[in-house]
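Two proteins follow. First one:
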Amino acid sequence: MTSGSHFLFPHFRRAIELATLLCIVTGAAHADATLDRIKQRGKVAIGVMVSGGPFGSIDPATQQLVGWNPELARDLGRQLGAEVELVQVQPSNRVQFLQSGKVDLLIASMEYNADRGEILGHAPTPFYRVGGTAAVLKTSGIAKWEDLRGKVVCASQGSSYVKPLQDQYGAQVRGFKTSSESLLALRGGNCVAAVHDATLIQPLLRSNAEWAGYVAPITEELLPAPSVVWARKGEADTIAAVDKVVQQWHRSGWLIETEKRNHIEPPQSLLPELQARFKAAP
């Protein structure tokens, strides 16, 4: 993971202050539609990404969703006092699922950017930070993002990495509905690189013998950004309730424990920084 979270903190601080103020102002007000519905039915539907590896996979023995994203979703529901329905989503449909009401919230490997912030709401306190990396053949000769210029690159439809790959580095991007399809296309020689979250690529290359011929040689992550819980636009009470849970995750160290429990390497530097911040907060 890249360092440099200090430049994000002013945004986080301001957002957190606004969320706190929002809690105070709306505390006595009627909850928005989503929070009302969660309370009335005692159930919350949360969209999660399950792409394999420690951030989300299917346990072959139990067929249960396990890993970082499902664990966060289950604990969020518990702290909201609701039973959790986990709904698998993909980059190509996760926004649609949220906007259409198929899910109430998203914990779906979907980092914050301004375009997404225009159409969706989100809890302002991040729970992680993720950037993209490229899986390539060891013999590809690719060592930096600029080496992708003019070359075919596989990615997921709806990925925030598509725009910088095209506009900044001149790659020819082929979009796939799922990261699995994108990675399969790389294995089939249909592209020179597959660009996805480093949290997906790095564990895959490190632990899967089928990927022994591939590496992630570019050390600088593409578009590193804060991971947040997404909600529908304007649902202030839901967002405030979720943000309170995320802040408690940091304050208690639960996110650091969950990262260790899921054997996520290397440890995310943002987590101890935010734990210290929230433990020191009045």
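Second one, unrelated to the first:
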Amino acid sequence: MDYEQPSDLFKALAHPTRLHILDLLRAGEMCVCHIEAALDKRQAYISQQLMLLREAGLVEARRDGLKVYYRLNDGRVSKMLDIALGSRPVMGVQPIDGCPCPVCSPVVIPVG
């Protein structure tokens, strides 16, 4: 049996901020600025943690213009988070005051 891959998974999960990011992403895809606002941490710190999660294969990213969006990439993560943190209803990404992302500050197009 190969124990390297599971070991890498546990290493990636063994950090409070990375666990918090993964817990947030259970709600759905979100941009880096939304994760920053939710965790009240600097962008560089969040990006560093996301890079480690991406390298571990737990999240994947997509770019849309200037925004980078992340989502869970491994179904095992949600199951492990349910065990470690408890399951919770999926409510989707919730708006956060002060976050400039499209979820929190939707662009209103005037009609007429």
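SUMMARY FIELD: Strands lie at 30-31, 59-64, 67-72. Residues 31 and 69 are 4 Å apart (CA to CA).
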